Each structure stands twice: as C-alpha cells, then as structure tokens.
Amino acid sequence: MTTEQATIVRNDRDRVAVLLMDYPGRTMNIVDERLLDDLRTHVDRILADASVDAIVLGSAKAAFGAGADVAWLPTLVARPDAEEFLAKVHRLMLELAGSPKPVVAAVAGSALGGALELALATSAIVAAENARLGLPEVTLGLLPGGGGTQLLRRFVRLDAAADLLTTGRSVDARQAADLGLVQQVATGSDLIATAVSVALGRVGALAGVALLPGTASVLDAQRDALADSRAGLTSAAAKILDVLAAGIADGIEEGLAQERRGFLELARSPYSRAAIHMFLVEADAKRRARTAEERVGGVAVVGGGQMGAGIAATAVTRGLSAVVRDVGSEDSLDRARAYLDAVLARSGRNDDEVRDRWTATVDWEGFSDAGAVVEAVFEDLDLKQRVLADVSDHVPDSALVATNTSAISIARLASAVSHPDRFIGMHFFSPVERMPLVELIPHRDTAPETALRAAALGRQLGKVPVVVGDAPGFFTSRVYARWLMEGIRLLLDGLPAEEIDAAAQSAGFPVGPLRAHDEATLELVIQASIGQVAENVMTDRLDVPALREALGKLVAGGVRGRRFGKGFYVYEDGKRKGPNDEVIAILGVPPSEAARDTAAERLLLAFATESFLCWDDGTLCHPDDGDLAAVLGIGFPRLLGGPFHWADEQGAAAIVKRCRALGTSAFPPGVALERLAAEGGRFAHARRRMAPFTDAAEQA
C-alpha cells in the first residue's frame, strides 16, 4: 500500500506554525483539492493547539505557487458537485481570513492565480523583493474561483482591484506594496523570519474579513475603458465586473456565490475551452523545447535590416550578446542600432548595459567563436546562398547556423553551407521583439541535436518554437497566403475592401486580409505569397494566375500599400483615412453584394482548410502545433483556439458540410477531416509525429 506524499511541510518557529507548501513531483506548487485538503487539516489542528499563536504560510520551493493546475480544470467543471466544491474552498478562505490566530503569507517568486488567492485569505502578505503577484485567470477566459474577486478588496482599492482582475496583469513586490496588496517587502535573506515577526506582531489583533469601500460607478468606468480598448470588453472581464458589483451591493457572501456561478459558466464556455487549450499547447511546446543543450551566450546575425535588427535587439534584451553584420554602409548599421534604441524606448528602458551587449560590424568580427549564427538577409535564394557560403568560412564547425526565411526551401539553402547537419530554418515574425512564435524548419539532413539546439536558442530569445516541414511556405506562410488570396477572390467577386475586412474581424481575426496586404505592400505579397507559395501549392484549387494579374494591375495603378500612401485604403502620414475608391475601377469589377453573406465563412474556412491540408501532407508534427502557430504567428482568432481545436469544437462532420456548401474545389476539407467526420473523431487525439513528414499517410 502506498502513502501519498504530503503537499505541506510544517516547521514551527517561536510559537508560530510555519506551513511550507511543497507539492511533490512539481517544480512549482499548484493549488488543487489535495493541497487544499492538507491545508484545512493543518489549520484545524493549529487552531485547536494552545501552544501555537500564529501561522505563516510559505513555500519550500523557489516560488510561492503557480495557481491551479490548468489541465485539471476541465475535470473540475465536469464534476456534478463542482459548485459545492468551490463553496467548500470559499469556506476555507473565509475561515483563514477570520482566523482568531493571525495568518501571514510569505511570498517569494511568483504567486499567481489560486496561489495568490490563498495569500489574499491571510491577515497580511510579506513579499520577497523578487515576488511577482497576479490573478491572470481572465487571460484564460475565466475569473478567479477561489475567492479572489472578493478577497482582493481586503487590501486593494476597488479601482485597482478591477484593473488587476480584468487585465490579468501581474505586479512586482514594490508595486504590490504601493497598491496595499503587500504589507511588507522583506529585504533580508530570511523571508520566513520576517513573516514570523509580522505574525507575532499581530497576535491579539481583531480578526475579520472587512472589504475596502467602493461604488458601482468605479466599475462602470472600468467597463467603459475596456469597451474602448483594443482588446475590448471580453465576456470574462464583463463577468468579473458583475461579480464585483454583486459583492458591493449585497456583501461578500453574495459576491462569492456569484463568483462560483460565474466561474463555472465561463469555464464551460467554448471561449474558455479555447483559451485553456492554447495555454496547455503553449506550455507543452515550451516543455518540449527544454533540452540539455548548452545555452549560448550570444548570437551573431548577418543582415541589419528590420528582421536582423529585430533578432539582435531581442537577443540583447534577453541577456545575450549580439554581433550584427551588414555589408552595406555604416548608415545601415546605424539604422540597425536605431532599431534597438526604439525597442528600448518602447519598453521604457534606457539601459547602457543592454546596449553594451550589441556590436555592429561590416566585417566578420565576432563570428569566429560564435555558438549560433542567424542569417537574415533579403528573401532571395541566390543572395542567401552566397551569404551562407561566406558564413561557413567564418564560423567554427560546431556553430549552429540558421536562416531566417518565411518560405525559401531550407534544403536548397543547405547546399551552400559546409555542415548541412548543423543547419536549420528559423522563421521569426515581425516585429521580432514582440511576436512570440518561431518556426523551426529542419531539412532532410538536419541532425536531431541541431533541432534541439535551435529550440533552446528560441527559448533563450523568449520564443515558442514549433517544428514544421520544409515545404513551400512551411506552415504559417502557406496558410497565411491562402487567407490573403481569399481576400482578393472576394474583391474580384465585387465586395468592397472595407466590407471584406469587416467580415474578417467579425469572424475574430484582428485585421482583415486587405489591410494585411497594405501593411506588407502588394509587391511583397506578389513576390512571396504568390510567387513562393501559391504558385507552388495552390494552382490545383485556385486561379492563381488571375490573382497575380489582379494584384499586378493594382500595383501598376499605384495601389501599393500603406508605406506608399495608397493601397486598398488611403493613408496620410501612415494613418488610414478611408477606402481607396480607385481599386474597383482599376480592376474593372462591378460592385456586388452576392458574396457579403459568405465572406466571413470563406475567410475562416480558407485559413482552416489550408491548415488541414498541412496536416494531411505531413507539414505538421501534431494539430496542436498548427493551432499554436496559427494563433501566435498569423492571427487566427485566439477565442477559437486555433483551426484544429475549432474544428473539434464544431465537429468534423459540420465542417465538412460547410466546406461542401462553399465548394470543395476551393475549400477542400482534406483526408483527415473527412475520416474524422465519418468516425466521429477529433484532431486532438492524433499521435504526434517525431518529425515533419513522418507517418503522414497513416496520420491522415
């Protein structure tokens, strides 16, 4: 018979019971039924023990806790006694808050979600200088379910509480102290000793759960501010404000009752399921990128344009050194350095130490001992091959060599390097310092350890790595090209640009395809999305020559994009002023409303079906990777959880039916989706391929 390890270790000091959370088998403490039951057992014993005057709740790990186990939430909400369980949690929280013996939380590292809710139930929070505190549930389409919506107001004014809850942002120890969330910042090395001292100082103080005052008008102001923000007033944020309002109007007990109902309502919604799915697949991608590969101290970048400068700027802000080589004039290197200055300015940093990690050169200084090199010159096969051949002559044989490209064949580029087994594609996204994804593209001869090294480098740069196959456009550029092409197809069907983009946004895309054309420039769309992708993989489904001809006519007529002041929209000083009325005249297409009712559906299915085909042909290792890349890299609606999760939610049979309604010649559902429709299966149950193109036929 096995005995389950305890999640809490008790070590008393000076008539103070010190409870240290130490969840076994986890690098971070999680708050679940097991830990809460252990905590209740300890607290009951301590309250009955006359030899103990106070309690300190801390952690035996480096951090206080990461909140609830997100993977456990679907199991929780499916339980018939889910609301009763949450009520039990709330009773424990109120008992802690009203304890006749003071309870003090000792917080080091992160205290997020449910872990912070535990701390909010104590008499005071003592935080180490490295502490970071927050309630990020709203980012998962949820609200705090462990009493956080009400208990936060014990320490924090209503306006600040509403902001923290509806944005999900975290604060450091000093910021938390300014808000009143933290009562003392411990500057010494013994956090527990400080917390014990604070606890003893509160012995005999009146216990209670009084909340700071607030009025509904504060919540109305927050609601209006969110509605006007770029993110908008999400269903989770709106529900949080409703729950706060209930607590103000009818007291903490009613607020907690509304919190329980609101939590379960949100957790059972498709939007929260999508958000939780995205959280889990991102966490899994990061986990798989954890390797034993040695971390590099710096990166050498060839190419000082926007992508090269962005990669280098990201490196130095993440603690790495960066050498940037550009064969142009010193002016080009100055522009690259100015890019770094702009990145630092946007982040509010003016850090000479960061700038000192940046080196610019027109020679090969710093490359002879580089552990990792990223080539990031213009998207031209011949140019990249020449540069990569030069790189091979100036870096050690052991160096990881990567090319930043959005569509060019990695295998063809590999022919130019001395050690193709150490060569891989790393497709970064613009702006590099803000976009979280990097596609890793091994070619046939890439060694497995090279892919691991590239994944480790991606994580050092703060990116989420996804491995995809070396096919035209890889995954993201291919799917994005199909989506852009559907925008032009709708335009040629007579639908105005602004209505096409509005349809895309109604489906959940952050921007529409024609605005995306303007941002990229139409010439680049012709060169990359059509020339490198569509003409290679879509001619059997789309009239690609007609699409190229249409875009060519527009460019010839002066419709080039935002940078040139005129694209599908007219711009002044870079700001969009309205639609460009010349577009329809240049194309000679009569206006038509026939496509209006199906525009959003066509854009959604264009994106999704191309993703399904990438799974069929082996470009992806798993549908989860496609969801992650689609959302983080190319703007698939996060609220839908990626194209594969969306298909699972809708049901494969329903998606096949929708494809047939639009015409499977342009919207082919693919082999895997057709099979799932027949069998009632889900993409989520697919086996992970060890590498792209492995067992593609079997998986399809």
From TrEMBL:
Domain (3-hydroxyacyl-CoA dehydrogenase NAD binding): residue spans on this chain: 299-470
SUPFAM superfamilies: 6-phosphogluconate dehydrogenase C-terminal domain-like, ClpP/crotonase, NAD(P)-binding Rossmann-fold domains
Domain (3-hydroxyacyl-CoA dehydrogenase C-terminal) ranges: 473-571
Pfam families: 3HCDH, 3HCDH_N, ECH_1
InterPro entries found in the cross-reference section: 3-OHacyl-CoA_DH_NAD-bd (IPR006176), 3HC_DH_C (IPR006108), 6-PGluconate_DH-like_C_sf (IPR008927), ClpP/crotonase-like_dom_sf (IPR029045), Enoyl-CoA_hydra/iso (IPR001753), FA_oxidation_alpha_subunit (IPR050136), NAD(P)-bd_dom_sf (IPR036291)
Span of the signal peptide: none
Entry keyword Repeat: no
Family the UniProt entry places it in: In the central section; belongs to the 3-hydroxyacyl-CoA dehydrogenase family.
UniProt protein name: 3-hydroxyacyl-CoA dehydrogenase
